[in-house]
Design brief:
Layout (H helix, E strand, L loop, with lengths): L5 H28 L11 H9 L19 E3 L6 E4 L4 E4 L12
Antiparallel strand pairs: 1-2, 2-3
Bound molecules: iron/sulfur cluster (SF4).
Iron/sulfur cluster binds next to loops.
């Protein structure tokens, strides 16, 4: 039978606590990166419909063609990472994208 000393038990407890804190911090960072600016559940049928027809996504794989670099996007100073889209006349995520993307002039 293996016995663990009290000291070893305490050391492992500290290791688990530190590991848990790192995981929690990483989770928070990931959540911040995936900020939702345009929640379809909170939108009326017209807003949902136009976003679906233009294939709007909150986070685009090509950040060179993200809303933040689109000529129709205006950043929201009070809500960093979000802004307003002129095409949708509503919110959009700076990391988002739709088929109407056009580079800033
Ligand atoms: S037109 Fe499309 S890509 Fe441009 S800001 Fe609006 S949602 Fe984003």
């Amino acid at each position: 039978m293996t016995t663990i000393s009290r000291r070893k038990l305490l050391e492992r407890g500290v290791q688990i606590s530190v590991g848990g804190a790192i995981i929690a911090a990483t989770g928070t960072a990931a959540a911040a990166e995936q900020k939702v600016c345009a929640d379809p559940k909170a939108m009326d049928g017209g807003q949902k419909s136009i976003r679906m027809s233009l294939n709007y996504v909150e986070v685009h794989t090509d950040q060179n063609q993200a809303c933040g670099k689109c000529g129709f996007f205006t950043p929201d100073a009070a809500n960093v990472g979000c802004g307003q889209c002129m095409i949708f006349t509503g919110p959009a995520n700076a990391k988002g994208h739709c088929d109407s993307w056009a580079p800033k002039g």
